[in-house]
Each structure stands twice: as structure tokens, then as C-alpha cells.
Amino acid sequence: MKRNVISIVLGGGRGTRLFPLTYSRSKPAVPIAGKYRLVDIPISNCLNSGLNKILVLTQFNSASLNSHIKNSYHFDIFSKGFVDILAAEQNVENESWYQGTADAVRQSMKHLEKYDYDYILILSGDQLYQMDFREMLDFHIENGGDVTIATIPVVAKDATGFGILKSDDDGNITSFYEKPEYDILDSLKSEVSEENKHKGKEYLASMGIYIFTRTILKKMFEEGAGDDFGKDIIPNSIGKYKTLSYQYEGYWTDIGTIESFYEANLDLCQDLPQFNLFSSSPIYTRARMLPPSKINGSYVSKAVFGDGCIIMADKIENSVIGNRTRIDKGSTIVNSYVMGADFYQNTTEIVLNDRSGRPNMGIGKYCYIEKAILDKNCYIGDNVKIIGGKHLPDGDYGTHSVQDGIVVVKKGAVLPSGTHIG
């Protein structure tokens, strides 16, 4: 079946709910699983689906994301594939930045004219899932869809936090409700599998993954259908165009908050995580040519390690440890995500810091860290205690912030020896 597709990954806005991880980077550039970036997920799903014409639309805090894309995705000269950046721009026709997800694509359409494509696949840059887009494309083509939306069955208590789509028995979407009130949910049930019905998953939530037939999307833009896919384009397409629901049965989560980001990372440490890093469909990222991680005298249980780590901790449990992380002797890391570092300190600097009492990059001696996220390039001294939990009030505290009981130490923060948080 002909799948002449161009994929567009939306680079995201300010990402305020992921602050301070998004203070100096966009959401898709946030490190995940110790060695990847969030944007690697949709790009890898495309490449594993045989779709190698990919554009990433960027606007806010895009330097880190641009650098990662440039250093990660290279195709040989005989391939027609690419992963290119399309940055927001002002021009003589339009002096405003992107006003929403649909507006970002609308403003970029002129750059797509040089490509041969029949369908546009729209993806978010901040979700965790593994999907073969070929199956969704085949569904769209076989059913004569103008618009196809990937949906996932959810239970009633989760439905109020999503855009909920109601479909008929043939998969046609008949109505859309953005974060519906609980008391109207009974009228929004859709046809789902018996297994999902048994679990109470009878409501179809939009995953923010869309396929448009090229001519239809151009027509929608010409009609001025709106600036946002979820709020404008999709609701306006129902009843006017053939709008289909493609039900996805696998694992999917939206990395929209610090809590969801934290939980998604720690789930990777489980015996059977919901997101399988060890499948036959690899997650691609930048090849850093780092040495293997070195662990000396540590008790380790349910932990994921990146590359190039030097670990002398007493205990690491239920935690993700990112590239180039250094943890000194006597320290304990529990239920935490340590993102690691962008570079190694040289030996001379480490010796001078030890003599002067300045913290080195990484985690010092006899520290205890629990329920925390340590962003990259942190300098944690000796005998530092960080204990997250619901007893901590949310807020920004300079070197760190607290959200939902999770302590987030900011990128490059220095915590002197003896610091106690929690």
C-alpha cells in the first residue's frame, strides 16, 4: 500500500508544567531514561515504521533540541531520508510566532512544497510510547479517512483530563469533548474491545497523534479552521470531513508534568516495565562513544544506568542513573532520577576541589537522596540529604523546586556539603 508520508514532530511551547527541567530547554529536549531525549521517541517510532522524512518544528528554548537533532540523525548520501529542524520565523507575510499546534504546521506548509507526499503525520514531542505508524496509515487509507486520530481507551477517572472522542461502530468520530465533566461521561462511551470494557476503559482519549490527507489539511487551513489541532481543527472536522478513530492498545503516557515524568522514568526500573527499551524496535539517539559504566562495591536493585558512569555508592535502588554520573562512596540513591553530566571534570580540577572543600560534579560522599530528580551537571557535596515527599510544600527554592513532593535539583546547581532538603 502506498504510504507517501511526511512526519511532523511538534517541538512544544514553554513547557511550564515541567519547570525547572524546561528552564533552558524545550520539552522534547528533556533527558529521559538516562541516555535519551524525549524527542527521540517519536523520531524512533517513525524510523521503525519505515518513515524517514521527518521535520521537527521548534520555537521556544530550541538551542539544545537543535543541537541534539543535528548530532543524532544522519542519513547516507544515497538515502532520501532526513530529520530536519523547521524553526519558527517571522517574515514579510507573518510577523507573529506560532499561535498553536495547527498554526505551527500552517506556517510551515510552504516549506513542504518541495516534498512529494500524500499524507501528513502529526506527532507530539513529549510522549512515551511505541507504535507502528504503518498500521495507523493503512487504517486511514483503507477506510477512506480525511483525518485519523490515534485514541487510547481510558477509565472514567482519567477521562476528565483528556480530550474525549465518541465514535460509532465503524470508527467514525461523532463528537469531541475537551476535558469533559464527570457527570456527562455516560453519554461518551465508545465501542472498545471486551478486555478494555471489562477494565472500565470505555472512553477514547485523543493521543495527540493525527494523520491528515494532504489535500484535506490544506483545505482546512484555507478555510481558517483554527490555530490548535485539539481545540479547533479536530472539533471542526467532525461531521464535515471523514474523521476516524484509530484505537491503540499499547502503553502510552503524556509527559506533561513533573509527576508523570518522574513516574515514567522510574517505571523503567521494574522487572517488566510498561515501556520496553529492550524490544526489537530500538530507540535511536546520539552516539556519544562513552566508556562502559563502572560500579564498585555498590548494592544495586532495580536500577537503569546510562554510559560512562563511575559509581561507588553504598546503595542504588529503583533509580535511573544518567550518562557520566559520578556517585562517591557511602551514598544512597532511592526512587530517584539522576540525569548525569554533559562532560567529565578533569582530574586536576577534582583534586583542587577536594583540597578546598568545593563540591565536584556528581554526588559526593555519604549522601542520601530519595524521591528526587537531579538535572544535569549538578554539584552535590558530602553528607547532603534530599528527602522528597508530600510533607514538602510546592515551590521554587533557588537551587531546587518541589512539585507533588518531588524535589527537582536544577541544572548546574551547587549544593554545599551538609545541605538538607526535606
Features:
11-stranded mixed β-sheet, 422 residues, alpha/beta, 9-stranded mixed β-sheet
Structure explained in plain terms:
By secondary structure, the chain is an alpha/beta fold. It has helices at 40-48, 63-72, 101-108, 133-142, 156-159, 194-198, 214-222, 229-237, 258-267, 347-356, and strands at 5-10, 31-32, 36-37, 53-58, 82-87, 119-124, 127-129, 147-154, 163-167, 173-178, 203-213, 243-247, 252-254, 294-295, 299-305, 310-311, 315-321, 326-327, 332-334, 337-338, 362-363, 368-370, 372-374, 379-380, 385-387, 395-396, 400-403, 406-409, 414-415, 420-421. 20% of the residues lie in helices and 29% in strands. Strands 15, 17, 19, 20, 22, 23, 25, 26, 27, 28 and 30 form an 11-stranded mixed β-sheet that branches. Keywords: ATP-binding, Carbohydrate metabolism, Glycogen metabolism, Nucleotide-binding, Nucleotidyltransferase, Transferase. Its EC number is 2.7.7.27. InterPro entries: ADP-Glc_PPase (IPR011831), ADP_Glu_pyroP_CS (IPR005836), NTP_transferase_dom (IPR005835), Nucleotide-diphossugar_trans (IPR029044), Trimer_LpxA-like_sf (IPR011004).
Structure described in brief:
By secondary structure, the protein is α/β, with parallel strands linked by helices.
Structural class: alpha/beta
Q: Let me know the number of strands.
A: 30
Coarse morphology: globular
Low-confidence stretches: none
The fraction of residues assigned to DSSP E strands is 25-35%
Distance between the termini: 58 Å
Q: What's the helix count?
A: 10
Helix content: 10-25%
GO molecular function: glucose-1-phosphate adenylyltransferase activity
EC number: 2.7.7.27
Protein name: Glucose-1-phosphate adenylyltransferase
Keywords: ATP-binding, Carbohydrate metabolism, Glycogen metabolism, Nucleotide-binding, Nucleotidyltransferase, Transferase
